[in-house]
């Protein structure tokens, strides 16, 4: 995993008062590590790390579920 | 241009236009050819650029301030108003019912009910001058009262529903109809923070699928429904609640 996904992992950790474990394949949505209200902020953070808007069609439920999926769809897919 | 019965440009008054649903409703009225008087505390710099948008600053909780604000745009509303959308409001964070501070309850009631009452009283003469029109209230499904931690908000929205129904009876002879839209969850700065401004349909779809959200939607979509209902004819439905929430009973 590259530095962008590590930065995103840290950003998600920062959402929580207590330390949390976030594996590459942890389901961010089902585990509620990212709540529905935080999801939009996460997309904005991904775009900031990515350096631009995410292309239409990339934001899908399966491409946003885990760090591994985000890395493949956005950071490696760029 | 949208024309009223006298072939004049139709005028709509919308409260809470500084952002979120109110701004989207004002934009939709403009798109449909209306002149829009937006009433809010902060104003809306973006909409202000449109020559058919009149930015009116007022604290809607203050009766005299609302009247003064509308008097200040006397020329725009000289021939009356065709539609009024009562959107301004406040949604406090959840709070355990046993510990709800009285001032939170009173403040929420003032922000959601008193603001609507003040706007009704200030605009009904303008609707009558138009020969009739519509009052459209932006309500909430939570008004059903089944979410105890949201009680101050729910109670204020339930009171707003009774105000809407009272209006539908009181002003029926003046050809003024009154209805309420309960849009369900909407992604606005009030519900999701400032990031909600630019939320795309793609993101909304992911949130709805991933979190099983009760049909979270964007302000533009909701604004379309609200303006559709605000355009009901004077002999159309009145005293009705239109619910756009899939999982919450009325």
Helix content of chain A: 40-55%
Oligomer: heterodimer
Order of helices and strands of chain A: HHH
CATH architecture of chain B: 3-Layer(aba) Sandwich
Strand tally of chain A, please?
A: 0
Averaged pLDDT of chain A: 90
Most strands sheet of chain A? none
Number of domains of chain A: 1
What number of structural domains do the residues of chain B give? Answer: 1
Biggest interface, chains and residues, is: A-B, 16 and 18 residues
Give a short summary of the structure:
The complex is a heterodimer of chains A (78) and B (250). Chain A is mostly helical. Chain A has helices at 3-13, 36-50, 67-75.
Please describe what this structure looks like.
The complex is a heterodimer of chains A (78) and B (250). Chain A has three helices and no strands. Chain A has 78 residues and is mainly alpha-helical. Chain A has a single domain (3-75), classed as ACP-like (Non-ribosomal Peptide Synthetase Peptidyl Carrier Protein, Chain A), CATH 1.10.1200.10. The longest helix of chain A is centred in the middle third of the chain and has 15 residues, at 36-50. Chain A is globular, with a radius of gyration of 11 Å. The two termini of chain A are 15 Å apart. With 250 residues, chain B is an alpha/beta fold. Chain B has a single domain, classed as NAD(P)-binding Rossmann-like Domain (Rossmann fold). Chain B is built from seven helices and seven strands. Chain B has helices at residues 20-31, 63-71, 102-129, 151-170, 189-192, 201-211, 219-230, and strands spanning 11-15, 35-40, 53-57, 83-86, 133-138, 176-182, 240-243. In chain B, strand 5 (133-138), helix 4 (151-170) and strand 6 form a beta-alpha-beta unit. Classes of the chains: A mainly alpha (78), B alpha/beta (250). At the A-B interface, helix 2 of A face helix 6 of B.
């Amino acid at each position: 995993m590259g530095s962008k996904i590590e930065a995103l992992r840290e950003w998600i950790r920062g959402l929580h008062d207590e330390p949390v474990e976030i594996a590459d394949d942890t389901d961010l949505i089902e585990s509620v590590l990212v709540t529905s209200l935080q999801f939009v902020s996460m997309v904005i953070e991904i775009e900031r790390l990515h350096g631009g808007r995410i292309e239409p069609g990339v934001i899908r439920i399966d491409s946003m579920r885990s760090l591994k999926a985000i890395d493949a769809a956005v950071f490696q897919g760029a | 241009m949208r024309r009223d019965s006298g072939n004049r440009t139709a005028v709509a008054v919308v409260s809470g236009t500084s952002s979120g649903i109110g701004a989207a409703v004002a934009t939709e009225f403009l798109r449909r050819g209306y002149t829009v008087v937006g009433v809010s505390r902060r104003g809306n710099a973006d909409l202000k650029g449109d020559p058919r948008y009149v930015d009116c600053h007022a604290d809607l909780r203050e009766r005299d301030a609302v009247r003064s604000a509308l008097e200040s745009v006397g020329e725009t509303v000289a021939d009356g108003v065709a539609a009024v959308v009562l959107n301004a409001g406040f949604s406090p964070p959840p709070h355990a019912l046993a510990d709800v501070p009285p001032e939170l309850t009173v403040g929420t009631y003032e922000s959601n009910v008193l603001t609507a009452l003040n706007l009704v009283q200030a605009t009904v003469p303008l609707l009558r001058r138009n020969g009739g029109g519509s009052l459209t209230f932006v309500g909430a499904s939570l008004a059903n009262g089944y979410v105890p931690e949201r009680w101050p908000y729910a109670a204020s929205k339930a009171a707003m529903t009774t105000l809407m129904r009272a209006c539908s009876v009181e002003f029926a002879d003046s050809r003024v109809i009154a209805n309420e839209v309960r849009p369900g969850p909407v992604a606005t700065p009030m519900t999701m923070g400032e990031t909600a401004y630019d939320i795309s349909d793609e993101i909304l779809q992911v949130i709805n699928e991933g979190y099983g959200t009760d049909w979270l939607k964007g302000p533009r979509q909701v604004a379309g429904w609200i303006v559709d209902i605000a355009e009901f004819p004077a002999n159309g439905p009145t005293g009705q609640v239109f619910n756009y929430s899939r999982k919450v009973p009325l």
